[in-house]
UniProtKB/TrEMBL annotation, chain A:
Any one Gene Ontology molecular-function term assigned to this protein's record: ATP binding
Pfam family, any one: ABC_tran
Family: Belongs to the ABC transporter superfamily.
InterPro entries: AAA+_ATPase, ABC_Ni/Peptide_Import, ABC_transporter-like_ATP-bd, ABC_transporter-like_CS, Oligopep_ABC_C, P-loop_NTPase
Protein name as it appears in the record: Peptide/nickel transport system ATP-binding protein/oligopeptide transport system ATP-binding protein
UniProtKB/TrEMBL annotation, chain B:
Family: Belongs to the ABC transporter superfamily.
Organism, as annotated: Caldanaerobacter subterraneus
GO MF terms, alphabetically ordered: ATP binding; ATP hydrolysis activity
Keyword Transport carried by entry: yes
Lineage, top ranks: Bacteria, Bacillati, Bacillota, Clostridia, Thermoanaerobacterales
Domain ABC transporter intervals: 19-274
Swiss-Prot/TrEMBL keywords: ATP-binding, Nucleotide-binding, Transport
Protein name, per record: Peptide/nickel transport system ATP-binding protein/oligopeptide transport system ATP-binding protein
């Protein structure tokens, strides 16, 4: 349903051109959950925002295609995009307050979103339309309450008029999921929706998203820096490093038999709850600064313990190592 | 000057309890602003962030402290190192009651008990160089000679894995992981014996977290430190801790050896918490207990057992009316729940 080809996003800064997204390829099938994993600054958010054409200034998409149900989103007009954003693709963010308005009741914001997307059609026209307005509002209210219930906000009628600050972080996240669901999207883009939450609340939200995926068949791109969360929640995993995709494939392959030295290193460095405690493996070095990264060669070169001289120079493609499993590393060339 | 620890008022040479916390409480009074007072008739609220906690920390151990955000972990840590004034209870350090220590005595205590903060971005003054940041604790601990101080700073930076040539750089010139190293160096500058390590890696990139955890462990060995290690990442706590205390809404609900807590959890809250840990290893995944609702407010904690509003093993009336005490149910394994 979604195919991204060679997507490039750059930021022109006073320190030079930053390649925030540097040639990403992705495919997502209907009804699947894709995990986009990488540490901060690796280009996950910019990839998601590109799909909605919402990359913030001074960033811009300079190359690539984003095919959604066969049509290139990068060729759509602004008004077509607006329609798609509300109807087909919805996004939820790590901080619910980027979506919620602090001065309106939560329920009203869900109702407003139903109105904007014209979910409950006005029944009458002209002067009668004015009379129909009350009816329409009532139906929207009922639908909003239904959505609140569906995302697990208990006593929805009572909470309808609560303000965002009266909700806990987990409840706010549920409210923006309700807003995202108000248009019954085919694709849900979730940018670190559980990063700020406690594990018990994270489990609740993941549970909710999984239900939405199973019941409505909504496809999800789930961005996280937590490999364990991705391992549990996603069907496919794509690992990003410094604006590039370094490995992608079915979850069992990427987690069970990682190929790229970065993926391998990350998996080794996570503390595990097993009887035997060993010193943690730590990936050496620091997270690269994109503005000062060498334009040539493998971006992981400085930190890679398997690097060879050629890695500094090569232009590597994503190499298919088995059915649906791809790696960008000289070892698999 | 080394004080021998006391147990029940008697000299306790054998167990050598290093730090004793007795019935510690820390309440915050929240005054509403004038407008809210007049318009909404808001009254002042008492936040019972730490509500009657007793625990011992042994010399050389790492005691892990876990629990959901807002349960009072940071408040407990900061109260123990006397950054917050305790509301009630006692803090006994090497047999000496420092609960109300002032002046010189407090200064002495601050040298021995340090803290590493969660957020490496906000805990360092952006207008001070690393040299200035590290000089403050060095001067406080009596290193007055500039040359000696410079040498100490070089040693400290080197020890935490930073280049001493960056001594005159400002915090923003460092990455998150490097800033946390500066925070660690600052805590070490006082040559402390005890450090509260408050969520040292939660704001740091995943590929750097293991470096910081390893550094903290090496330092502990080398300098014979004792840690109170706060984290909400349970895998990290499992990895570093000798014993673990689980907090819920201002109280300790379970405490024991790390292996006992993780492989034989007794309290329903601990069970739920552990079941929610995501794991990369399929075979290690536990059957998930999804807890209903959210943590109640520490302003009005539920009567009886504080977990009773969310507990899936509740025994009825008893749980709602009688507050369970923290009891030793197996050797060294404490739990506060009516099931035991
Ligand atoms: N406003 C901006 N100005 C300059 N560069 C930016 C800006 N926003 C993002 N970037 C660059 O884009 C890169 C990718 O950012 P982002 O997609 O937000 O990363 P992630 O979501 O993986 O943490 C960053 O490393 C940064 O270099
Ligand atoms: N300075 C303060 N003033 C008022 N309330 C506070 C203050 N610091 C913390 N609290 C409250 O005390 C409770 C415990 O907070 P904290 O110790 O930070 O929890 P944790 O570290 O476990 O997340 C929370 O309800 C918090 O809002
Ligand atoms: S290409 Fe070379 S440097 Fe890059 S990950 Fe592979 S071995 Fe390491
Ligand atoms: S005392 Fe009762 S409510 Fe509390 S944890 Fe035990 S069983 Fe649950
Ligand atoms: Mg992001
Ligand atoms: Mg805290």
């Amino acid at each position: 349903m979604l195919e991204i080809r060679n997507l490039k996003v750059v930021f022109e800064t006073d320190r030079g051109v930053v390649k925030a997204v540097n040639g990403i390829d992705l495919t997502l099938e209907r009804g699947k959950i894709l995990g986009l994993v990488g540490e901060s600054g690796s280009g996950k958010s910019m990839t998601l925002l590109s799909i909605l054409r919402l990359v913030p200034y001074p960033g811009k998409i300079v190359e690539g295609e984003i095919l959604f149900e066969g049509e290139d989103l990068l060729k759509k007009s602004a008004s077509q995009m607006r329609e798609i954003r509300g109807k087909d693709i919805a996004m939820i963010f790590q901080d619910p307050m980027t979506t919620l308005n602090p001065v309106f009741p939560v329920g009203e914001q869900i109702r407003e979103s139903l109105r904007v997307h014209n979910i409950i059609k006005p029944e009458k026209e002209g002067i009668l339309g004015f009379l129909g307005e009350r009816d329409r509002r009532k139906k929207e209210y009922e639908k909003a309450v239904e959505l609140m219930e569906k995302v697990g906000i208990s006593y929805p009628e009572k909470r309808y008029f609560s303000y965002p600050h009266q909700f806990s972080g987990g409840m706010q996240q549920r409210a923006i999921i309700a807003i995202a669901l108000s248009c019954n999207p085919k694709l849900l883009l979730a940018d670190e929706p559980t990063t700020a939450l406690d594990v018990t609340i994270q489990a609740q939200i993941l549970d909710l998203l999984r239900q939405i995926n199973e019941v409505n068949g909504t496809s999800i791109i789930f961005v996280t820096h937590d490999l364990a969360v991705a391992a549990e929640f996603c069907d496919e995993i794509a690992v990003m490093y410094a604006g590039q995709m370094v490995e992608k494939g079915p979850v069992d392959k990427v987690i069970g038999e990682p190929k790229h030295p970065y993926t391998k290193g990350l998996l080794k460095s996570i503390p595990k709850i097993t009887r035997k405690k060993e010193k943690l493996y730590a990936i050496p070095g620091n997270v690269p600064d994109l503005a000062s990264l060498s334009p040539k060669g493998c971006p992981f070169y400085e930190r890679c313990e398997e690097a060879v001289e050629e890695c500094k120079e090569v232009e590597l493609p994503l190499i298919e190592v088995s059915d649906g499993e791809f790696v960008r590393c000289i070892k698999y060339l | 000057m080394h004080k021998v620890p006391l147990k029940d008022g008697v000299l306790d040479m054998e167990n050598g309890v290093f730090i004793q916390i007795k019935n510690l409480k820390k309440y915050f009074i929240e005054e509403p602003d004038l407008l809210m007072k007049l318009v909404a008739k808001k009254k002042k609220r008492v936040v019972k962030a730490v509500d009657d906690i007793s625990l011992d920390i042994n010399k050389g151990e790492t005691l892990g402290l876990v629990g959901e955000s807002g349960c009072g972990k940071t408040t407990l840590g900061r109260t123990i190192v006397r950054l917050y004034e305790p509301t009630e209870g006692k803090i006994i350090f090497e047999g000496e009651d420092i609960t109300e220590a002032r002046g010189e005595k407090l200064k002495e205590y601050r040298k021995k008990a340090q803290i590493i903060f969660q957020n490496p971005y906000s805990s360092l003054n952006p207008r001070k160089t690393v040299r200035q940041i590290l000089s403050v604790p060095l001067i406080a601990s009596g290193v007055k000679d500039p040359h000696e101080r410079e040498e100490r700073i070089m040693y400290l930076l080197n020890r935490v894995g930073l280049n001493y040539r960056q001594m005159d750089s400002y915090p923003h010139e460092f990455s998150g992981g490097q800033r946390q190293r500066i925070g660690i160096a600052r805590a070490l500058a006082m040559s402390p014996e005890f450090i509260v390590v408050d969520e040292p890696v939660s704001a740091i990139d995943v590929s750097i977290q293991a470096q910081i955890i390893n550094l903290l462990e090496e330092l502990k060995e080398e300098l014979n430190l004792t840690y109170l290690f706060i984290a909400h990442d349970l895998s990290v706590v499992y990895h570093v801790s000798d014993r673990v205390a689980v907090m819920y809404l201002g109280k300790i609900v379970e405490m024991g050896k790390t292996e006992d807590i993780f492989f034989n959890p007794l309290h329903p809250y601990t069970k739920a918490l552990l079941s929610a840990i995501p794991s990369i290893d399929k075979s290690k995944r536990r059957e998930r207990i999804i807890l209903e609702g959210t943590v109640p407010s520490p302003v009005n904690p539920p009567k009886g057992c504080r977990f009773s509003t969310r507990c899936f093993m509740k025994k009825g009336k008893m749980c709602e009316e009688v507050e369970p005490e923290l009891k030793e149910v197996e050797k060294g394994h404490f739990v506060a729940c009516h099931l035991y």
